[in-house]
Amino acid sequence: MPIGGNNFREVIPESVIKITSSIRFFIVENTRSARRYLKLIDKNFPVNDSVFYQLDEHVSADEAVIFLEPALHGHNTGLMSEAGMPNIADPGANIIKLAHKKGLKVVPLAGPSSVFLALAASGLNGQKFTFHGYLPVKDNELKVRIRQIEKESMAGVTQIFMETPYRAQRMFNYLIENCNPGTELCIAADISLSTEQINTRKIIEWKKETPVLKDRLVIFLLQHHK
């Protein structure tokens, strides 16, 4: 699914839209938004005649086995991510691994991954990188973690992490306060949306310009050069 907005044709290949429209069994993060998306790409999509299995943190590996029953009986089954691609900073690893164990053919379909799009546009090292997901929330733990990942980046490994929209501005402030002046920081906000902004600057340069990040989807990328 798109990262945000309704302009799905700008970020989802036509071939993927066609395949999605042909599927009637779906493993999804949220049934309501999945149904809404299917009606968006095809107003005549038979959502009431389709089957949706909701995959969230409450579903155990044993319970997820039933989600693959249609595929085991020859029916194409789609694993749909809320935003981006399954298993790339999103759920799906366990069900994909289970599909391999069952001998099912797993086919990745191209979609907008905010992590990879941010890395591609950052100008930072795309050959070696580490994705951390969300960093700690507590002040002391966050400060320690920021210093750790900055140190790890000294080996030429780009450090990538994200934050919830309502804490994105706070994260920026912590990075400015705790990172070395020469460390490069890329802020990728609202990727693929009309409000998209992607900028890479050194910390000392960011101190002269404070971006407005509150309530925006932001990916942070960091790399310190010795």
Short structural description:
By secondary structure, the protein is an alpha/beta fold. It has helices spanning 14-22, 31-41, 61-64, 69-72, 93-101, 114-122, 139-153, 168-178, 203-206; strands at 25-28, 51-54, 77-80, 129-134, 158-163, 184-189, 197-202, 218-223.
Written account of the structure:
This protein is α/β, with parallel strands linked by helices and about 230 residues long. It has helices at about 15-20, 30-40, 60-65, 70, 95-100, 115-120, 140-155, 170-180, 205, and strands at about 25-30, 50-55, 75-80, 130-135, 160-165, 185-190, 195-200, 220-225. The strands form two sheets. The chain has a five-stranded mixed beta sheet with strand order 4-5-8-6-7, with helices on both faces. It has a three-stranded parallel beta sheet with strand order 2-1-3, with no helix packed on it. The longest helix is centred in the middle third of the chain and has 15 residues, at about 140-155. The protein starts with 13 loop residues before the first helix and ends with a strand. The mean pLDDT is about 90.
